[in-house]
Write a structure and sequence with these properties.
- The chain is α+β, with helices and mostly antiparallel strands.
- It is built from four helices and eight strands.
- It has an eight-stranded mixed sheet with strand order 4-3-2-1-7-6-5-8.
- A hairpin with a 5-residue loop joins strand 1 and strand 2.
- It starts with a helix and ends in a 7-residue tail after the last helix.
């Protein structure tokens, strides 16, 4: 589902503006419709954060036949950017309380913007993407406060790698141990 949303938003909203959608999460907003917090990169490597509102709109489409003057209804999503900021202007990301599963966090620009993600994991996924984008495009570390660092920057060597790679390495080591244990050891030394 999210890959379809990503493709649709990329096609309708970001590609015409010469931007590439890097990460997005669904957020809760008081206004009607679905809302997303998006991070995109422009051709000139400027990273933008935006709130995108998705509203379902009904449009009338004329039927394909020339003789028929009937209209059929089509439901389509209408995406609109309601707020836009530059990542360069982001001074602080405040997770509020790292010890509580709280999907709300604060983005500090000129003004503080409260954002409520649909889940705590979505909040951490978006912040990880912001950290990577800031390191890559802004050449500065992002100022974070009140986050559990073990979820932001994994410390172990294997945590960034896929589960299949880790599993295959464990199996390889186990196979080596079995092979070594079956090798005869000379007793006369």
């Amino acid at each position: 589902m999210s890959s379809l949303l990503r493709e649709e938003m990329q096609r309708v909203l970001f590609r015409p503006g010469k931007q590439r959608l890097v990460e997005f999460i669904e957020i809760e907003e008081p206004a009607h419709g679905r809302h997303f917090l998006c991070a995109s990169v422009a051709k000139n490597k400027v990273v933008q954060l935006s709130i995108v509102r998705c509203q379902i709109s009904k449009t009338a489409i004329k039927s394909g036949s020339k003789r028929s003057h009937t209209k059929r209804s089509s439901i389509q999503d209408c995406y609109k950017m309601t707020e836009v900021w530059s990542l360069q202007d982001l001074t602080l990301v405040d997770g509020r309380d790292p010890d509580v599963d709280d999907p709300c966090f604060l983005l500090h620009f000129d003004k503080v913007r409260a954002v409520t993600a649909i889940s705590c994991s979505a909040k951490y996924a978006f912040v990880r993407a912001l950290v990577a984008l800031s390191d890559q495009h802004c050449q500065r570390s992002l100022n974070l406060r009140n986050f559990d660092w073990s979820y932001i920057k994994p410390t172990s060597f294997y945590s960034n790698r896929g589960d299949c790679v880790v599993l295959s390495q464990i199996c390889f080591y186990a196979f080596n141990l079995v092979c070594l244990s079956m090798c005869p050891v000379p007793l006369d030394a």
